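Example A, followed by Example B.
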Amino acid sequence: MNIQSRRYDLHAASGVLGFVKDLWAGLAMVELWRTFAWDEIQQRYRRSMLGVSWIILSFLMFVGGVSFFFSALSGRELESFIVYVALGYAAFIFISGNFIDGCQVFTSSHVWIKALSLPYSVHVYRSLFRSLLIFALQMVVVIPLMIWSGWVPGLLTLLVVPTLVLYVVNAVAVQYLLGLISARYEDVGHLVTSITRLLIFVTPILWVREGLDGARAFAADLNPLTHYVEIFRAPLLGEMPRMTSWAVVIGVTFAIWLAAALCAAVFRRRLPYWL
């Protein structure tokens, strides 16, 4: 692709309209950000004998280890708990990964941002597509585990489609928002990383939310990631997600997009000066 032939005037529009134009212009450059994303994954494992297979192997090791030690405490059969952990962990990695990647999405691309007049969203789509590739490789492990446990797809399985759409929509706004904020305040990246490490213990990945009551159930439901994981995992387990979870996810999605639009309207044009 001739990048120079598709130059984009970053200062042609300001405010929310400029943010929307940036998102649209970046989305049109599919070949560019798709190639960048795949190249980054290959470069990360370039000197490894197993290459990208490490993504699958490390995921399988975590799911197997956690299931072995925690299945007895879950109240579920081993096969069921393995699938429960695998689905929840895959969703958690994708969601939390977009928080961490979002803090670096612009700072790690400062050379490109200063050298070429590309839409900023190109870097967001590149990062997001990389996360989707990793998520797809993890599902290569999850789907056989589901079949092994006796899983049979049903109508509820179709609810995964709007869930994945919401995941992607959220990821775009989260990465753009955190990318701008972290470019201005470097400490935000460290804070987000620290919080993300804690969230895996307070999100129903290693433990089962069903059966909790009282203060513990209330505390679990205060965590938005509980609801994000549930709307993905429950349909694949043949269960209907709670309407509360859908309401929380949709409400948080609107809030994130509003914050991203307002932040981009004010700070987007200053990004090159912060890098």
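Example B, a separate protein, is given below in the same form.
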Amino acid sequence: MALIDDLDETQAPLVEHLTELRSRLVRALVFLAAGFAICLPFADIIFGWLVLPLTKAFPDGQGQLIFTKLYEQFFVDIKVALFAGFLLSFPFIANQLWSFVAPGLYAREKKAFLPFLLATPILFLSGASLAYFVVMPTAFEYFLSFQGERGGLTVEALPAVGEYLALVMRFIIVFGLSFLLPVLLLLLNRAGIVERAQLARARRYVIVGIVALAAIVTPPDVFSQVLLAVPLLILFEGSLLLMRLSERRKAKQAREDASIASEESP
């Protein structure tokens, strides 16, 4: 009988956590649906912003987007609204995640996580901005350079709206998520999973991994790969620098605590 009571006591917190998780997920979906509903009437305008890098890559007055399926443009508008709605509602979705995790953390842990919460949207927007303002115009100009005469026939770029949207979303998401590398490394370091010395010793392998990652996730042109690999390498080295500063601060604090303890001891 006591065993059954113990099981009931351990299951109760689990049920409460699952209920809380379900509530947070429902609220996150509500925020996503609200963002989608807000962005859907402006899907044409948003897609107009997304198509600007391609418009500027074409010569003035030239270039067009086509759709080969009657329903393609409709689904493009839906995807645009969903994509923009997710970006719009992401702070609220992240707040739901934080509200679920925060009660299980100590005050010191909450304070330690706060910089990571603030850095995440900033780094993601930085990566997305790099993709939108620098990488995509450069890549599109490179792709369009293949237009011309081939074997007596005219080779002309006629991108489809669906394929173009998929490419743009790939650029933005890949660069945005890749710029979260410092957050991931610093969290792993803070959790004691990896140490700065380990990452420093594995620098050559990290460089190879970053270059390989850039080659896999970006379109097959060297410009996009370089424009992703170089910032990631800089962010990696910046993460090591922040880890070094954190280690020095902890060492200084430990020395001060030891000094105070020695002074207080008889």
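On Example B: The chain has ten helices and two strands.
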